[in-house]
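Objective 1b. Sequence-to-structure analysis of Argininosuccinate lyase.
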Amino acid sequence: MALWGGRFKEKASLQFKKFNDSLPVDYRMAVQDIVGSIAWAQAIHEVGVINDGELVRLTEALEELKVSVEENPKQILLSDAEDIHSWVEIQLIEKTGDLGKKLHTGRSRNDQVATDLKLWCKETGGDLLLALVNLQQAMMNLAEREKDTVLPGYTHLQRAQPVTFGHWCLAYVEMFNRDIGRLKDALYRLDVSPLGSGALAGTAYPIDRNALAGRLGFRTATMNSLDAVSDRDHVIELLATASISMVHLSRFAEDLVFYNSGEAGFVEMSDLVSSGSSLMPQKKNPDACELIRGKAGRVFGSLTGMLTTMKALALAYNKDMQEDKEGLFDALDTWEECMEMAVLVADGLKVNRSRTLAAAQQGYANATELADYLVGKDIPFREAHHIVGEVVLAAIAKSVPLEDLTITQLQEFSDKIEQDVYQHLSIESTLDKRVALGGTSRSQVQKALATGNEEILNEQVVGAPGKQQIKVALKQVKQRLNAQRAAAMSVRRARMSDVDSIHQLTNYWADKGEILPRERYEIIHSIQNFVVAEIDGEVVGTASLYIYETGLAEIRSVVIKDEAQKQGQGEALVQYLLEFAHQMELTQVIVLTYIPEYFAQLGFTKIDKNSLAENIIEDSAPSANKNAEDEVAMEYIVGQSK
């Protein structure tokens, strides 16, 4: 059944119906369409279109339909409905009779589909964000396993300078971190509700669109009805984000295809992600990586298709825009699948350390070290570069590495070269000199990735130039990864609309004697210090960061609803605040707690409570239900590069 037949004398041809219908694609938005319909029923009830009893009947029928769809979404495909909106309305009419026909009052399929798609994107974006964080974690784990493995670094696919395998892994951690930033930006911009924009000119009913947006979990409502129904920037942005990330995944895949080749032999893929040949029994092919590399083009194609569809498209809605979903759904499915496969690849990768070391020792990768040595002897770098080029030519002619040339042979090119040159030409020396922030110093990467313990982080810079920077920078990677995981679990900065939820949560736990009470006015005036955790749009946890002075802050009021306990929300809140502390350039974060073992797992260490300033102790007076002697002071040294 179509929703628009009254204007027409004849039925559409079956050929056109097949060409026009979108149900085989947009059935994936069934839950979002039902959720939007429930919110719309409430909105039209508030303006008197339906009465209390009708609202209850519609809501109950829609909730029942939602459960049915969640249990069996494929049932929708058995219908000949034009699209998911038609299908939901048909089902509703079957359940409620003529009442179901009232629901569409003041609403158009134009603002309906725009809302459904944004709701779907918000939900899917959360899954993608978590997949990216898991991928980062897999690369961190691989770096942990291969932290001291020497690997030849390449430029122009020619051996250039030695690096560590851990350093190679961390390069992809950085790439995926930028992907996370792009995804979060895109999700923020799409978090505005088009519902109530009508077909193009806005609804004729006095709907409170901001309240409606909040009911659906949106940040706010759109500001222009023409733009709202015709905007597909969020589709393009998500496709662009997916495409850039697939570039990174394809580079990761290509590196490993090369490293896995017989010519390199640096790694071996797990059997779980490899296949064989139907003809050659000896073959073990890196098919997972080749497919990741190949699927990048598929995602790029979806982006190109959407850009082309939207180019020069007149306002407002046009049927061309029905093409927005198929490519988007496929691209985001593909991206998520590739990320999950990349995790499987990384988890099962076996590195041939002797082969990577031998390769790093070949190709005159220490030539730059010889040039730097000559610079240390007061030879200008350009002249040193020329001298070393001649030395390399001589070594090639003799088929020996630079370090096998005798001191007499080396001095033929410069009398500044002395016996101490050989200590600069080893792999260890080459790696250990890269101690500046972002470098590949093996010992520093190893220590930072192995433990990230406070002893390393508190190490003095004196006598070890650059060492502290590397260690701190790598702790920042872990700290940032934890913060990204927190964001993926829907932890965010608090807003004024969260005040009542925060007040209720803190009072509930204060009444139990677990924390100090917080007055509502206190929360209002310090709302910028609070973060909240959400599940399905509901605030289930909160915490705050109270700043005492330029370098010191305290984490307070970490509380979670009873029904949301043991889901990682508390840890996510703390990790989010630690990253916030880093961004604020704080150096020390403290807690006063009765559960020190919990905070110890998050990187906090015990300190003498008496070492804290008197005002801190006064501000954090223990609950009347607790023994003051059981309260423990702990600190976290924030990873800063300064």
